[in-house]
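Take a look at this chain, tokens included, and explain the fold to me:
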Amino acid sequence: MRIVSTKMLIPIVQTIYFKTFILIPLAIVLVYVFKSCYRLWRELRLMSKFNGPKPTSLILGHWTLLTQPSDKLYLDFRAMARKFYPHYSMRILANCAVNILAPEDCEIIMGTKKHSSKSIIYDILKNWLNDGLLLSSGHKWFQRRRILTPAFHFNILRDFVPIFNEEAVNLVENISKNCGNSIDVVPLVSDFALNAINETAMGTKSDEEDRNQRAYRQAIHNIEEILRFRLMRPWYYMKFFYYFSTMSRIENRLVEVLHKFTRNIIQKKIDNFISNSVLPTPDDDEVYMSKKRKRLAMLDVLLQAKHDGEQIDYKGICEEVDTFMFEGHDTTSTALGFCLMLLANNPDIQEQVSQEIESVLGPERRKPNYNDLQKMDLLERCIKESLRLYPSVHFISRHCEEDVQLNSGLLIPKDAYMHIHIIDIHRNPDIYPNPERFDPDRFLPENCQNRHPYAYIPFSAGPRNCIGQRFAMLEMKAGLIAILQRFRMTAVDTPETVILKSEIILRTENGIKLIFIQKLGVPSRVVNDKIRRTNYFYN
């Protein structure tokens, strides 16, 4: 019997180890490639059953369609919605998506926690907003939502109304400076909304003349342009490629501006706590509540949660403040601008709303309280109808966590994306006859009874609906009341002439221009100042 020596075994063992070292990783790679190919084949097979526009490229799919100017893209999406209702498919490289246009399908997707994860599209916001409530998912989202919900309780919102009124007075005074002239209302209502959320949700007084605040507003608009640039270039979804681009460096500078503004707000609140030598608690009226008005700021809630060890740290507080400063001011100001435009273009309805305001607040034009705002039914219906026609967030995208069967019986495959076009749902003629017409009576109780619950979703719907929707409604009411008490509006821009852009927030190409005419018997602070200066000169 031949005995194998150790020297003979060594090369054999080395060969086995070498082959194993090579073959196992190779096998893993092959399995991964096979699974990826199978997943893509399955996705494409299922997606082929959907109607949709013809791909412009075998490899790129519909990418060239999305590289158009944002105003042209907006019109193309509306045309595809009319042509391919209730849903249609699109593809960019290997990323497949189904565009949802029917409320029945919206309920299937949005009415459950299974599909609450955002799609890859939202990853482009991560550098700015990180894992705030808008972008987080799973346990983290649930935990943050639980922490923040008390900050938007109606008892808290009730105490915010006087602040909304104060900021509405400032808005009116800014409008008064150009009374009788064509004014772009977008920057004015943006100031109003930013100041309001700063003083209410953040609990800090803002300064309209603050250079940081002006820089913050401009940075938001600039960064949205960059985000759209990245969105239309799929290779920039990958951080490695985007990191070395010029746009990445510009975005980083803008994010620094945005973060500097919100970090200053947080630091002011922390300094206030330190100066009082105590964190706020619900039983501490001197610190937790304002001396002038009892209110609980969202930022107070976050700092208290950190102090109590409720799974949020300083970074988490920054994430939520960034998120709410963006969502809470940009979406509301956009909605308010569109509502003013629609009222200016419908003078009969504008007059009816003015009469309703006077019937509740009297001819002396006093400021409304919370109960007054609840009585103004027509005003609320006008806001709702405006949000139907021009939802600030006109598009939502989700990641498909598992296969989803739609109302038509077609299947959306796992790992595909689901794009919900809110603006097309809101303008569906089968749900809203003559959908382009501004008609607040659509929201009379008798007209809403048989309407699908997901046929009107300006604040999203389901478990991930907007936590601040009541906050936004109260703020818009206060702003509109102050304006309509003092001015009659006439239209410069109309729904037919404004050019809409398909961006993160629905916007117009050139603002929204209106003319404000001072009502008789309502001298503004600006006019009074001029009178006082004139009297002083002659006396």
